[in-house]
Backbone:
């Protein structure tokens, strides 16, 4: 079963363009998504500079890596350009913003969506610098440890992972894995139906029971459709 990406609850995992993504948030730009796993290990910047707008990782993500995604998707229209805020971890704005298609999450984006971001099996870079060159920190960039905590290291370190993020068109149709839905996400789906069609549930138990019934129906429908695909 396919549905518009904008209807997927936060934390939903789905496959697109040869990668498995996790839905983080929906906003006016589109749907912010993060790869479920690290795609490869690379330096933040080969020249050891912590301004993401000038980094080798940005050039790679928006060059060869994006080309691979477009080839796998068969089109480029779903990948949206957005403005990335490069305010440093200590609040300095020397690095300004940059326009990107594929990027590394900022510290703010990570913190805002930490509750639905699964831990990875290695360290992975964020796009936020610890501070700026004007404050004596031109080499240190933020990264996420395996337990989800934040740290920092020299930008030239090549043993940190790239975990790409992007904004996808919210109207993109995705295949939804019903078996991956948690009880909380199922409740969100039912709440959306309530808002659309009216009605209410007296208790949370009734809501969750309705969600379970709805997902069971979806799975049964999917099993009937599968032989015809």
Residues:
């Amino acid at each position: 079963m396919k549905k518009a990406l904008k209807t997927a609850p936060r934390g939903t995992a789905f496959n697109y363009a040869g990668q498995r993504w996790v839905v983080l948030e929906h906003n006016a730009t589109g749907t912010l998504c993060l790869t479920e796993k690290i795609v490869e290990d690379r330096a933040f910047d080969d020249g050891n500079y912590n301004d993401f707008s000038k980094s080798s990782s940005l050039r790679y993500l928006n060059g060869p890596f994006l080309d691979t995604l477009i080839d796998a998707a068969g089109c480029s229209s779903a990948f949206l350009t957005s403005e990335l805020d490069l305010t440093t971890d200590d609040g300095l704005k020397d690095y300004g913003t940059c326009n990107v298609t594929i990027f590394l999450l900022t510290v703010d984006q990570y913190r805002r969506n930490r509750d639905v971001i699964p831990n990875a099996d290695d360290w992975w870079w964020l796009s936020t610098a610890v501070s700026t060159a004007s404050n004596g920190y031109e080499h240190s960039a933020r990264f996420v440890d395996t337990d989800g905590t934040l740290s920092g290291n020299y930008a030239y370190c090549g043993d940190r992972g790239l975990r790409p993020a992007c904004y996808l068109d919210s109207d993109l149709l995705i295949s939804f894995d019903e078996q991956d839905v948690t009880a909380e996400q199922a409740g969100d789906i039912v709440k959306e139906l309530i808002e659309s069609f009216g009605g209410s549930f007296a208790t949370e138990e009734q809501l969750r029971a309705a969600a379970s019934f709805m997902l069971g129906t979806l799975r049964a429908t999917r099993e009937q459709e599968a032989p015809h695909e």
